[in-house]
Amino acid sequence: xxxxxxxPHADDPQRSPLRVIxxxxxxxxxxxxxxxxxxxxxxxxxxxxxxxARSFTGVDQVRQNWRTIFESLPDxxxxxxxxxxxxxxxxxxxxxRGTGRDGSAKLLRGVVIFTVGTERITGARFFLxxxxxxxxxxxxxxxxxxxx
Length: 148
Description:
The protein has helices spanning 18-30, 33-37, 59-72, 138-146; strands at residues 40-47, 56-57, 77-86, 89-99, 105-116, 121-130. By secondary structure, it is of the alpha+beta class. A hairpin with a 5-residue loop joins β4 (89-99) and β5 (105-116).
């Protein structure tokens, strides 16, 4: 993971919330559901501003979501493209790659803004989406979005 190495505590494992994000990345790449859910507080709150009905509270939903992801994308691998921290808030840019059960390539990219408590993620604002490979340029895509 690329972190904000200029932050005064970025390399301090006792004080850096990046340590929790590193554990999360490893758990996803190892497909370790228990290690993954251990990264989240029991009362974790996920807010999905672009899709409000997808917001949820609780680590049980995290487990259910990732169980489905691991079953649907059995070779999923993830990386954090960049990260910056401000206190207990970690801004992360993600990329998820995998192959669907039908053999199709899947690619998701976006930003997740985490709040990290003591050793666990307590909240997130989630902006991760499938990559749209539509060949339309920006003007046509914008017009399409505004005409919906």
